[in-house]
Amino acid sequence: MKFYEIHDPYYSLIKAKDEDEAIRKYVENVANDNEGCNLKDEISEVERDYALAQFSRTGGESGETIPVHEILKDFQSDDSLVLLVDGNLL
Fold first, then answer.
1. What is the pLDDT confidence band of residue 3, given thresholds at 50, 70 and 90?
2. What is the pLDDT of residues 55-85, one digit of tens each?
3. What's the half-sphere exposure (Cβ side, CA atoms, 13 Å) at 71?
């Protein structure tokens, strides 16, 4: 699995098998690609360690610390996931 960030129109960190799947996950879970931006221009692949650090530094939806075993479970699974979304969307 690979890790991708999209910054515009809303930030998201996504785990997916490829860029196209990451964009699909973004459109399904974060925001449509209909605000005049092209997600192909906004997406960038990031290193796994960077994604892990970003994900582990954030809290859950209610601000609680995410347990280490949950973080590792998400990173070790073969499922595509939206790991982080812009706080303005919560």
1. very high
2. 888 766 666 777 888 888 988 899 999 998 8
3. 17
Angstrom distance (rounded) from CA 41 to CA 48? 21
Which residue is associated with the tokens 């949950």? 70
Average pLDDT over residues 15-20: 96
Beta bridge partners of 44: 5
Give the integer Cα–Cα distance in Å for 87 and 6.
14
Domain that holds residue 55: 2-89
Q: Which two tokens stand for residue 60?
A: 């859950």
Pairing, β 81-85 against β 43-46: unpaired
Query: What backbone torsions phi and psi does residue 75 show, to the nearest 5 degrees?
Result: -75, -30
Q: How many domains does the chain have?
A: 1
